[in-house]
Amino acid sequence: MKRREKWTDKRVEKQLDQFPDVKDHRSKAEIFHKVQQRTDEKQKSRRKQRFPWLIPSLAATAAVILGIIIVPGMIPEQDEINNDQLMTMDVEEESEQSEVSEETGEVNETVEEDIDMGIQTERVQEKEVDDVMQVLDEYESIFMDIVDRAGEDGKVASFESKDDLLSHFTTVMSEDLAKSHVDMYFQEDGDELYILAMDAPIWLNEEEPYDVEEVSTEEYHVIQEHDNEMFGHVNIIYVLTFDGDNWVVDEIKQDELG
Amino acid sequence: MHEKFERIYDHYHQMLFQYIFYMVRNREVAEELVQEVYIKVLHSYDEFKGESSEKTWLYSIAKHVAVDWIRKQNRQKRRWLGKWFDVHERDFEVSDSEPLPEEIVIQRDEMKDVYKQLRRCRIDQQQVIVLRYLQGLSINETAEVLGWTESKVKTTQHRAIQKLKKHLSDYDDQELKEVSR
User: Fold this and answer.
1) In this structure, how many other beta carbons lie within 10 angstroms of the beta carbon of residue A123?
2) Residue A251's pLDDT is what?
3) Which of A1, A35, A120, A165 to mutate to test the interface with B (most CBs of B within 10 A)?
4) How confident is the model at residue A62 (pLDDT cuts 50, 70, 90)?
5) Among A25, A108, A218, B94, which residue has the fewest nearby CB atoms (within 10 Å)?
6) Partner-chain contact B120 A145, CB within 8 Å
7) What distance in Å separates the CA atoms of residue B43 and residue A169, rounded to the nearest whole number?
8) Transmembrane ranges (chain A) (predicted)?
9) Which one of B20, B67, B105, B133 would you mutate to disrupt binding with A, by most A Cβ within 10 Å of its Cβ?
10) CATH topology assigned to domain B107-181
11) First and final C-alpha spacing in chain A
12) What is the CATH number that goes with domain B1-81?
């Protein structure tokens, strides 16, 4: 017979505390080998893209140096610039040599450092946007979770009224958006809540292209073009705002594209 | 590179592996992803400024790797178009057919249920539960890993437990109904 002990916070927490330790059974050497392999692969594929970039930059450096040789004395703060130039000239000479033979040593390193810095800033921005974008994912999952768990007749499993659901939705949506979703997709019938069988809202499809616009530090727009029978050819704009505590989906707009 | 790897491995490997495992719920995937964490860590070690502890910095990288993977999965599962009752059926199938890892299979039913229902919580709720209860991180450490305030950690943790409790009770009710049918 099935247990019927009630689930309390304590009982849940006690189980969580006792979850088993899970270990990686592979050896240290094996893991290191794999990591090294992957790192090499990544570097190789990145290096291929790096070289076209090097040539124009060398040309540009050469042009600047030429300019300085032709018009000396026209540039203020000579000392500083001269130093810079000397350095770039060194690098250039070396790199010309190395281009003839094999790319080795210092030149390679300077170039790689430059690129690494670029990648790092890119990553920081990516991370911020990523955090904001997470709310779109939560928006989809909070809604689909209810759909997943509804009975075949559309009966909602864990919410009994629209108000119940509304307060649940407002954790990831603005009050207005939550209300419009509850009103559009759900129906109260006595003590039960039912989903109406219709098409779900348009979610962002992360596998298709979309644009992210930073309107302010507290507002982002995520825009994706859709073209299908149901909605026609439209831009869907997800307005994401920061409510002081969390990011929420504030509003979803449609722009007809004809 | 080898030295750095060795040091991080000795201090943190099993901890990071376990964290990723409980987030993605699959050993093979966790093995792949933990390698991904090393690649990122070794590549950007100079970025680490010691503002947070090394431990929470490593966790935050692991978090990104794991969450990226989970999102990609969700996308693939729910590629949208069509009526949602199709989606409903498909998703249901996927979540129920997912086999339990052997570590969990051998546990008592009660724990298995908690493990299964944990998956129904939102990702941020799962994060907090895994970090706080399974990894034993403090509120402060959890806040650093997730980039949240301590109060957000506390409220999310509270909500997560409530959510989990509700899922567990609903699940019990459902089973009871099925038995009496």
Assistant:
1) 15
2) 92
3) A35
4) confident
5) A25
6) yes
7) 40
8) 51-75
9) B133
10) Arc Repressor Mutant, subunit A (1.10.10)
11) 62
12) 1.10.1740.10
